[in-house]
Amino acid sequence: MKKFMVIEQFKPGAKAAIYDRFQAKGRMLPTGFAYVDSWLECDGDRCFQLMEARERSLFDAWTQHWEDLIQFEIVELGDKPKPKA
Q: What domain count does the chain have?
């Protein structure tokens, strides 16, 4: 599985609707995804989620559930650099 950092920018005035939908339906991740962890920016307007997926194209189905409330940036992550000896 590949690792991805998902940067979610909440649209203006959408926070309450985002939390309501999340409480009612969860993350709504399709098969082939694994949620790892997430962090919320101090002002609460952006969320950073670390996820794993077999391929980048799987994100399209997931973001469709949220694109009315959130703008997404999805970054594929590489391996950690190995320390020099």
A: 1
Q: Which residues are 42's β-sheet partners?
A: none
Q: What is the pTM of this model?
A: 0.85
In a domain, 83, yes or no: no
Q: Is residue 54 part of a domain?
A: yes
Phi and psi at 62, nearest 5°, equal: -70, -45
- The pLDDT tens digits of the residues spanning 27-80 come to 999 888 899 999 999 988 999 999 999 888 889 989 999 999 999 999 999 887
Show the domain range for 28: 2-77
Domain of 50: which CATH number? 3.30.70.100
Strand stretches in the chain, DSSP E: 2-10, 33-40, 46-53, 70-77
Tokens of 1: 């599985």
